[in-house]
Amino acid sequence: MELDGRELRSALGRFATGVCLITAVNEEGEALALTANSFSSVSLDPPLVLWSLQNNSEVFTTYSKARHYAINVLAGNQQELSSRYARKGDHVLDAEHFTPGEHGGAPLINDALVQFECSLDATHPGGDHLIIVGRVHAMHAQVEGEPLVFYSGAYRALA
Ligand SMILES: Cc1cc2nc3c(=O)[nH]c(=O)nc-3n(C[C@H](O)[C@H](O)[C@H](O)COP(=O)(O)O)c2cc1C
Predict the structure, then answer these.
(1) Mind listing the pLDDT tens digit for each residue in 27-61?
(2) Whose Cα sits closest to atom 21 in ligand 1?
């Protein structure tokens, strides 16, 4: 049975997620950010996480090869950052949005709820996406603060 693509997207969207900015530095030394909600935990020991990158992304080469990257979980008041770095082909970070990390230099988004500093562990083909598994080397979490939530194609706040 052929699945209807729109129905599938809509059904998958009923799984509420947080929103992340995945950050890395490209070969020209520019700091990049890309909005993603495919982030998931994989393993505690060793500490592994994953996210999925569209194969047709304009920044595919940078993100699929980056040896170090960061996963920044956005706070409820950072919706503008999510929209900003979801714009096609427009991923160079504004200087006021980040600070370089200590483990490999991946950019850390200022005031994010959590910043995970990762190194590339493995990639796996996943249909029209590439599954990117990272090893967590450090994390910086805010004790207080609400997450940005994405549900059914729209941003939400925790009620
Ligand atoms: C809430 C949200 C979640 C997204 N999640 C992902 C994701 O997990 N993986 C991905 O490759 N793109 C994801 N995107 C799309 C990218 O942020 C971005 O729009 C897309 O990569 C733009 O095309 P480009 O990469 O060619 O510039 C998401 C966008 C939004 C708004």
Answers:
(1) 999 999 999 999 999 999 999 999 999 999 999 99
(2) 57
Q: What pLDDT digit, counting tens, does each position of 55-89 carry?
A: 999 999 999 999 999 999 999 999 999 999 999 99
Going from the Cα of 18 to the center of ligand 1, the distance in angstroms, rounded, reads: 13
Ligand 1: distance of its center to the CA of 19 in Å?
10
Q: Is the CB of 58 under 6 A from ligand 1?
A: yes
Residues listed for the chain: 159
Residue nearest to atom 28 of ligand 1 (CA): 36
Question: Whole-angstrom Cα distance, residue 88 to residue 73?
Answer: 20
β-bridge mates for residue 31, sequence order: 25
> For atom 6 of ligand 1, which residue has the closest CA?
36
Q: What are phi and psi of 6, to 5 degrees?
A: -70, -40
Q: Which domains, and CATH codes, for the chain?
A: 17-151 (2.30.110.10)
